[in-house]
Amino acid sequence: MSFADRVRAVIADRGRLCVGIDPHAGLLRDWGLEDSAAGARDFGLRVVEAATGRVGVVKPQAAFFERHGAPGYAALTEVIAAARTAGLFVLADVKRGDIGSTVDAYAEGWLTPGTAAEADAMTAVAYQGVGSLREVFARADAAGKGAFVLAATSNPESVALQAAVRADGRTVARATVDEVREAGHGIVVGATAPLAALGLDDTALAGMPILAPGFGAQGARLADGPALFGAAAELVLAAASRSILAAGPDGIADAIAAHAEEARW
Amino acid sequence: MSFADRVRAVIADRGRLCVGIDPHAGLLRDWGLEDSAAGARDFGLRVVEAATGRVGVVKPQAAFFERHGAPGYAALTEVIAAARTAGLFVLADVKRGDIGSTVDAYAEGWLTPGTAAEADAMTAVAYQGVGSLREVFARADAAGKGAFVLAATSNPESVALQAAVRADGRTVARATVDEVREAGHGIVVGATAPLAALGLDDTALAGMPILAPGFGAQGARLADGPALFGAAAELVLAAASRSILAAGPDGIADAIAAHAEEARW
To answer: Using a CB-CB distance cutoff of 8 angstroms, which residues of chain A are in contact with residue B176?
Structure first.
């Protein structure tokens, strides 16, 4: 089964909403939790509990655990393990990138079956070229997992780089998409990324698994997904976090259900 | 004191060799250590011990610890703490990148005084634009620390992206260098990176702290540093790992001393 087929099956079975697990300091405070590894752990486990049975995909953000050092990392692996035990597809948002044996070590850490931090997919970054991620793709392929490579993002500072034109005439964003497609993996495309300015359109993205952050509090409406992604909407995992997590521990289950409903394309 | 002044002082005081701490599986085996978090910890502590008094800078590679999960992360923080206690300048090679509160959380994790993983500098990646790293620069500035942003790398897959031309006529690599200079931080430039093909030359890099991997086993001779970096050679931290670490636990102190001697420009 290709990675695209796996994502298609997850979406068909449990929808395309991807719930972000982002225990930043402000949210921990709002939830009445300590700003510590233990607080991040409790936060993550509550989100997993609320997501179970309501959505298919959760996306823990490594940075918010890593800021608590080694105990934070242990909390992250516990949250990932709980999510996988609950049958959720876990997308580790780690944005790792490097070359050779180094990037291979990252992939080993996040995508090896049986290890504590085992996820179903990881995000990756390719400033050193998509080819620099070959070890990530290989590890993912061997385990029936996947990588989502940053391609077109929504932050205004990103346009100048991602719209830069390579010697072959393609923009950086377009070439990243094309090369990741050849590798059989997925891309990260912000819901409000300026596709045309980046040399992209929906047909360039069609048929690929797409992680699309930027829904909810970050500006795009989930219901607008088909309009935003056109021919590429089928395999979009629509990520929302702040607009869900702001509901607090008592409201999060309902917030997830409402967001999931809005993300039924 | 600016970050460039801090790097200048380290180099003046203890030389420019940067010893990589890369406990990958093959090296652990060669050193007679277990391929585990404990093995990576022992490996790292032995390198720190051998580096102390012989060089100024060590560069632990996060990936080789992260592959051992949370215990690996704990091992990494222990190695970092031991190195700082020994008076070494610790450059955490983590290549983190993201935006907003997420990238701020990464910077908090690696650059906050008093925390377990506190380093003196971290590597960062800016596929989302150098501006996406502003929180990293701010945290570093507040703590008298620094960031080294990937600019021009040596792997062949990187050229097409880093040589791509932006709307303002600069290559991605050149604009990254210019923007990091404005921010007052450092760059990563491979010792064998094809500078001319990336729209760079030594004057474009002069005066900036430069982390230069690629010496030793990766192809460049330390003694060739002045020829490779020209006007920018002054603030180059010349990183070598495999050619040092291959000496094994009994030979590493001598290997570090020999490499340090060769790196005296």
So the answer is: 161
